[in-house]
Design a protein that fits this description.
Keywords: Cell membrane, G-protein coupled receptor, Membrane, Receptor, Transducer, Transmembrane, Transmembrane helix. One of its GO terms (cellular component) is plasma membrane. With 214 residues, this protein is an all-alpha fold. Helix content is 76%, strand content 0%. The protein has seven helices and no strands.
């Protein structure tokens, strides 16, 4: 139970998603039915979005890899971005849908850590790809003649490698910090609980020392 509570807290801190497993109420409760319906609608929408994201990015990757006219340095950045979004759709979104559908995490601490790390890495990489593509377009417009000579496949490969390395550098350290901290130990009873337990286990005795009453 302590491990599950720690994982739930980690997921809530990372995504801001509340645990609504205890919000369904009684069978006749309208609030519980509404929450269940909204959750199902969200799951169906996310499944459709995941499939669409996968198909679109597979199409982009296939088109760039199989069409020789598209083998340009600028398109290498777009292909790398498509690979990143494909990884998000295949590795991150299905587990996110499962977590939303069930309302709780049931795949263990290791999978949770791996999922969060992949999520941070791929999403950060996707954002950085957009920044690099925008910068590439800016240089191509403002300094077209000189940048055309520098816009080589090797330069594009260096930019892609730098984006992936920076994304991993940003996302991996929190994983090691959490593993070094380790799981939360067994919860100790609160002072109130301890005092009540002690009171019930020992007979009541009058207080020692001089009386303070007048």
């Amino acid at each position: 139970m302590d491990m599950e509570a720690e994982i739930e807290g980690l997921l809530r801190d990372s995504f801001g998603a509340p645990n609504i497993t205890n919000c369904t109420g009684s069978p006749g409760d309208g609030l519980g039915a509404r929450l269940s319906t909204e959750r199902m609608v969200a799951v169906v929408f996310l499944v459709a979005l995941t499939l669409l994201t996968t198909l679109v990015n597979v199409g982009v990757i296939t088109a760039i890899c199989t069409t020789r006219k598209l083998h340009l340095p600028a398109n290498y950045l777009i292909c790398s971005l498509a690979v990143t979004d494909f990884l998000v759709a295949v590795l991150v979104m299905p587990l996110s849908i499962l977590y939303i559908a069930r309302g709780t995490w049931s795949l263990g601490w290791v999978v949770c850590e791996a999922w969060l790390s992949l999520d941070m890495t791929c999403c950060t990489c996707s954002i950085l790809h957009l920044c690099v593509i925008a910068l590439d377009r800016y240089w191509a417009i403002t300094n077209a003649i000189e940048y055309a000579r520098k816009r080589t496949a090797r330069r594009a490969a260096v930019m892609v490698a730098a984006v992936w390395a920076l994304s991993v550098f940003i996302s991996v350290p929190p994983l090691f910090w959490r593993w070094r901290r380790g799981p939360v130990p067994t919860a100790t009873p609160t002072p109130a609980a301890s005092s009540s337990t002690t009171t019930s286990a020992t007979p009541s005795t009058p207080p020692s020392g001089p009386s303070t009453s007048p």
